[in-house]
Amino acid sequence: MNLRVKHWIYGIFCLLVAIIAVGPELHAASNAHPKKAVVESQVKEKPTQEKNVNSSESHMRTPIDWHKSSETIPYPDLSKVKDFWIKVDLKNNRTYLYDGSKIIYTMYSTGGIYKKDPKTGKMKSVTPTGTFYAQQERGDSFFNQSLKEGANYYVSWKNHGEYLFHSVPTKADGKYNEQEAAKLGKTQGSHGCIRLSVPDAQWMEKNLPVGTKIEVVG
């Protein structure tokens, strides 16, 4: 076998060794790119998902201020709402205004305190739960002598003046009870009515149509 043939065979051998050695690395590299692409895709999608989650409460005023509206945007124009109703969530201290299945405004609220039900032994709010309808009784202020407590901007939703939406409570001198007002949106505290911030209660008194469905849960 002459020297040229030997060199040719040796060259082919070296080429085969190089291909075998590099092959696994090429395979590993080709598999790594799709994984990297998936991870990058997930990282890019996360901010969008978080933005969507937070957008539903992005207009809520923080910290809570009972002197001001619950949201920083205007109240809804009910003339443009097709299916208006209200949901009061006693446990979460929120009152939701709906157009069909869509929340169009959220109000901080405070419902009745919870007491142990003697029949069931479970804690139960003194605010009645169920489905009710806004009533015609409403006004700018009232004072309950027996409770030594009043409020401004009220509208009735049960028993024609017994259960109301109204502002945070006032004292006998007409000034707001700031200790009780501080509970708004944070915990329960009323005798059964639904307390709202001063502007929210005023909007309710002026704009809540008689007959509006009100669901109280919790």
From TrEMBL:
Pathway assigned to this chain's UniProt record: Cell wall biogenesis; peptidoglycan biosynthesis
Parts of the chain that traverse the membrane: none
Keyword Repeat attached: no
Residue stretches making up the L,D-TPase catalytic domain: 84-217
Keywords of the record: Cell shape, Cell wall biogenesis/degradation, Peptidoglycan synthesis, Transferase
SUPFAM superfamilies: L,D-transpeptidase catalytic domain-like (SSF141523)
Native species: Limosilactobacillus balticus
Protein name per Swiss-Prot or TrEMBL: L,D-transpeptidase
Chain spans, region Disordered: 37-61
UniProt-annotated catalytic positions: H166, C193
